[in-house]
Amino acid sequence: MKSSGEINPSRRVFSGQNLFLLTALAFGHTLMHCFQQGWYIVLPSVKESFGLSDIQYGGIESIRAASSTAVQIPSGAVSDILRRQWTGIVVSALIGLAVAYTVLGLAPNYGAVLVAAAIVGISIALWHPPALSVLSERLSERRGLAIALHGMGGNLGNAVGPAVVGLTIGTVAWQTACWSMAIPLLAFAGLLWWGLRSVPVREGRGVEAKNYLNTLRALLSNRTLLGLVVSGGVRAMGTASVFAFFSLYCRVDLNFSPTKTGLYYAIMMASGVASQPLLGYLSDRFGRKVVLIPSLVLLAFFEIVLVWSGSGIGLALVAACIGLFIYAVNAVFQAAAMDISPREAGGTTIALVFGSSALFTIPSPTIAGWLSGLYGTSAVFLYSSGLVLVSALVLVFLPIDRKIKDSILRNSKEG
Q: DSSP character for 246?
């Protein structure tokens, strides 16, 4: 008999506490991504203030990726072992992001900027394993859509954040803008902690620490999951460079103001607000691969077109087309990974997906900075498009299908 505090996935999917849980986590994800993407709007001002080279500029994002990589697997382990404390983990992610912006706003030198970047990476790594695994368990019947709706919250933040941050640093000094951004993050962290107290904890006792390595080994022996990890990682190498250098391209190459840069970055991210749940729904209906491969090919195509899109309406249209896929495919990658992983290892599975992306990303922004210094910022977009096409090619050879998990569960019962 289940206690009232345990999750029962058989209950109606989008109703009652399920709906509240999804809404709260989606809004928290909105705030996380609002300031995650706003970070890229601040960076050109940081580069100018400290007189950084393109390689040093790319190094900021490489440090962020490295810190995220270092924390991803441990955060997944903590999420699976301490299943009933998942609320505290997601709240700490918001607090960490507030600390990062405070450090950046008070940074006296490049070293302090790198410390702030590292804290951003850690904070982002803490959010996803507990948030996505609890949604995957509780809304398992509509996993692709649930993860996509959570991702849509992130995409909304991706769109709003750059515009708000661009407007703010166009009005006040970027240092003042940064430390003041800690206030809404800390306020919502308190509200989220209070609101989720009434939501049932994750079902089960979690993975015992002594058995955790066995669970991790089982995941790493799954060739399809490893293929997803590699594909997602290569894709992240490309998209991370676009995230970091699109704002620099607007500020330096196109001579946009911070406000105009934030607006164009927001246009790029806004189109994904609608496309993310659509891609999630289509992947539930027709399969993950059917959605992922065409999406990645189109993303690569529009990144190439971006180089010749100009600085007016053409740039806005191409940026919007890129935004349809650049972040929205994340949810489909995540759902595909959760399809083929055991339920008790949901946090670790998400950590593997995000951790591999961060790991692959570590050298990429620095490489992009080197390319930008030699050939101009437009070379970064061509570099990214090539990596995205490689990611799509890897998926061609993977047996991804939503029915795989059902087959695995059926075979395990029969065995």
A: H
Structure tokens at 358: 């961060």
CA 68 to CA 358: how far, in whole Å? 6
Q: How many helices (H) and strands (E) in the chain? A: 17, 0
Contact between residue 166 and residue 45 where contact means Cβ atoms under 8 Å apart: no
Per-residue burial over 342-359, b if 16 or more Cβ lie within 10 Å, else e, is bbbbbbbbbbbbbbbbbb
What is the number of alpha carbons within 13 Å of residue 100 lying toward its C-beta? 27
Cβ atoms < 10 Å from Cβ of 46 = 21
Taking the model in full, what pTM does it have?
0.75
Closest CA to 337 of 232, 413, 236: 232
* Per-residue tokens: 291: 């959605």
Location of structure tokens 């382990």? 77
Angle at the Cα of 396 (from 144 to 214), degrees rounded to 5?
A: 65
Q: Are 37 and 161 in contact (CB under 8 A)?
A: yes
Phi, psi of 8 (to 5 degrees): -120, 100
What tokens were used for 137?
């368990």
Please write the tens of the pLDDT for every residue from 328-377. Answer: 888 888 888 888 777 666 667 777 777 778 788 889 999 999 999 999 98
The terminus-to-terminus CA distance of the chain in angstroms comes to: 25
Q: What is the CA radius of gyration of the chain?
A: 20
How far from chain centre, in Å, is Cα 159? 14
Residues in the chain: 415
Q: Could you tell me if 366 and 73 are in contact, meaning their C-beta atoms sit under 8 angstroms apart?
A: no
CA dihedral 67, 380, 260, 59 (to 10 degrees): 30
Say whether pLDDT at 201 is over 60.
Answer: no
pLDDT digits (tens, 9 = 90+) for 150-176: 877 887 888 888 888 888 888 889 999
Residue with token string 């029962």? 8
What is 196-235 written as a DSSP string?
GGGSPPPSS----HHHHHHHHHHHHT-HHHHHHHHHHHHH
Query: CA-CA distance, 236 to 107, in Å (whole number)?
Result: 28
Distance in angstroms (rounded) separating the CA atoms of residues 120 and 113 = 11
